[in-house]
Design brief:
The chain has helices at residues 16-30, 50-63, 79-90, 107-113, 132-140, 193-206, 245-248, 274-286, 292-301, 304-329, 354-365, 391-404, and strands at 37-38, 101-104, 124-128, 147-148, 151-152, 156-159, 177-181, 209-213, 239-244, 257-260, 335-337, 343-347, 367-368, 370-371, 382-386. The radius of gyration is 21 Å and the shape is globular. The protein is α/β, with parallel strands linked by helices. It has a seven-stranded mixed β-sheet with strand order 2-10-9-8-7-3-6, with helices on both faces. The structure holds ligand PL4. The site of ligand PL4 has 16 residues, from α4.
């Protein structure tokens, strides 16, 4: 008799982003003809830059000739892309072997799947608030109890608050798997090397593993801030890093990312190389590699021209973030983030709940954002605005907030 995975029943609510879409559609049904300005989901909006487009086209053309046709590739990714990624890190003085890079179709899937190579009884710690995938993937795999008002039983929440500058203290108990995201979704805060060092030291002392999501690293403009956790001594022994071309190369829908599992990375019951071997086995078993056309686009994104053009695109989105920040500040709304990240994290005026502010912003200004409480208990009373959008729409949204928000 087949039975379902009842851990799915524990999931506290619908997934955040579909719930936003549901409420937005309900608003549009009632207000036909209204123009809704979307600063909700972190999704790129500008056309793919020419150098990357050329790479994608070349990938397509290669499939049309006998001599360059390719079928299934290695599930870890093509060598030229893994080598290009290793060179990117080498520019920052980091020595990582191309074989430690695993190319994939998304940082979302990798950050959800990575827990599968660890024991079911590992204790998990997450930043609160956090990208929902980290929590939900562990709920589904049975590492938590039921949901209660302030989160899931068995999960260790590390609050990120105004008081601690949105970066948590190390856990006050022994945990095994730790999720850190920097630049952070949703708060936009970027961890310093010193802050990361406290976690790296904790992880090495406790033989814990850090899952470091750096999907927005290309938005860091401050040269003092680390773009990779491996800029911190000892991180190669305890950290697995995720990154993505989604925001770096501005092509969320194309689907290309990478995960680094250093061979030096160990758990208390494994020798160097074992975690790397497990992730290789996992990917070989469940995944057949990212599309060859897309990987050609990734190689082009790493070329000097590709990097110049994609950097300019990142600057465009950062300028959007600046415009949002300035507009909100003119209303005396407290904001964080946005300087080295594509997200502006604002404190809801009048101590409104995050979802009440969502409804207010939608009804009064026709602007869609993301309620902070959807990212975890400590997100309550906060709200995220995404800087991904056409300039015209971002300006319209900010103007509408300035003109129509009743605070
Ligand atoms: C909407 C910290 C966005 N439907 O594109 P990927 O899979 O390489 O990367 C996804 C990802 C990974 N890590 C972090 C992220 O913030 C994201 C993308 N997050 C958002 O608005 O929070 C898009 C979300 C998508 C989803 O459900 O993830």
């Amino acid at each position: 008799m087949a039975r379902i995975n009842t851990n799915y029943d524990k999931l506290a609510a619908g997934y955040l982003f579909p719930e936003i879409a549901r409420r937005t559609n309900a608003f549009l049904e009632k207000n036909s003809g209204a123009q809704v300005l979307r600063l909700g989901i972190g999704d790129t909006t500008e056309p793919i830059v020419p150098a990357v487009l050329d790479g994608l086209h070349a990938g397509v053309d290669a499939l049309g000739k006998t001599e360059s046709y390719s079928g299934y590739g290695p599930s870890e990714g093509i060598n030229s892309l893994r080598e290009g990624l290793a060179s990117l890190y080498a520019e920052r003085g980091l020595t990582l072997d191309p074989s430690e890079f695993f190319v994939s179709d998304g940082a979302k899937s990798d950050s959800a799947n990575i827990q599968g190579i660890f024991s079911d009884d590992c204790v998990v710690a997450v930043q609160d608030p956090a990208y929902p995938v980290y929590v939900d993937s562990n709920v589904i795999s049975g590492r938590t109890g039921k949901a209660y008002d302030n989160g899931y039983e068995g999960l260790v929440y590390m609050p990120c608050t105004e008081e601690n500058g949105f970066f948590p203290d190390i856990p006050d108990r022994k945990v095994d798997l730790i999720y850190i995201c920097s630049p952070n979704n949703p708060t936009g805060a970027v961890a310093t090397k010193e802050q990361l060092k406290t976690f790296v030291d904790y992880a090495n002392q406790n033989k814990a593993i850090i899952f470091y999501d750096s999907a927005y690293a290309s938005f860091i403009t401050d040269p003092e801030l680390p773009r990779s956790i491996y800029e911190v001594d000892g991180a190669e022994n305890c950290a697995i890093e995720f990154n993505s071309f989604s925001k770096t190369a501005g092509f969320t829908g194309v689907r290309l990312a990478w995960t680094i599992v250093p061979k030096a990375c160990v758990t208390e019951d494994s020798e160097p190389g074992k975690l790397h071997a497990l992730w290789t086995r996992r990917q070989n078993t469940f995944f057949n590699g990212a599309a060859n056309i897309v990987q050609a686009g990734g190689v082009a994104a790493l070329s000097p021209e590709g990097r110049k053009q994609t950097d300019e695109q990142v600057s465009f989105y950062l300028e959007n973030a600046r415009i949002i920040n300035e507009g909100l500040k003119s209303l005396d709304i407290t904001t964080y983030g946005g300087g080295n990240a594509p997200y502006v994290w604002l404190k809801t005026p009048g101590e409104l709940s995050s979802w009440d502010f969502f409804d207010k912003l939608l009804n009064e200004c026709h602007v869609v954002g993301t309620p902070g409480s959807g990212f975890g208990p400590a997100g309550e009373g906060f709200f995220r605005l995404s800087a991904f959008g056409h300039r015209e729409n971002v300006e319209k949204a900010v103007f509408s907030i300035q003109e129509s928000l009743k605070i």
